């Protein structure tokens, strides 16, 4: 039986020091619930390998040496993240949301499975991709679905993208909330008239 609680779209943003998890590290994780700016989560993570791509690390502006000294271990950080997601179940049904879901989802799912044993977003870690959702909603081609374009079309001119995982998760939550508000309510289809 489906729960009567509403779906909670949890905007997720990751900063990492390389292109894939395992050889490289997720170094920060932010989550925010669309339409609920009071519900947020942020953590930094201690790197899990010695490998990193300097250009990737520079995007976040995080100090890798400080993370190695001070950040929670991956197991501590992901356990806290899973507890936060699971704690939301008393008010709604968590649904993963990212932009792009492939990038952020790859890191988040791998880290949850590796360090917690399972993902609070389900066995596949699947969820909503902003750009794909926008394509379906508007009929746009992929090239017209960049987050900056979506923000412009929604009139969200004062919502920055900072490459801080917590702030960028809040940005995505705000964008997706605006997307949902734009969505036209679907009218229930009436049953076809019976033939005489």
UniProtKB/TrEMBL annotation:
Q: Which GO terms describe its molecular function?
A: exonuclease activity; lyase activity
Establish whether keyword Nuclease is in the entry.
Answer: yes
Q: Please name the taxonomic classification of the source.
A: Bacteria, Bacillati, Actinomycetota, Actinomycetes, Micromonosporales
| InterPro entries (UniProt xref) | RNaseH-like_sf, RNaseH_sf
Q: Which superkingdom is the protein from?
A: Bacteria
Keyword hit for Transcription: no
Please report the name of this protein according to its UniProt entry.
Answer: Exonuclease
Which UniProt keywords are given for this protein, alphabetically ordered? Exonuclease, Hydrolase, Lyase, Nuclease
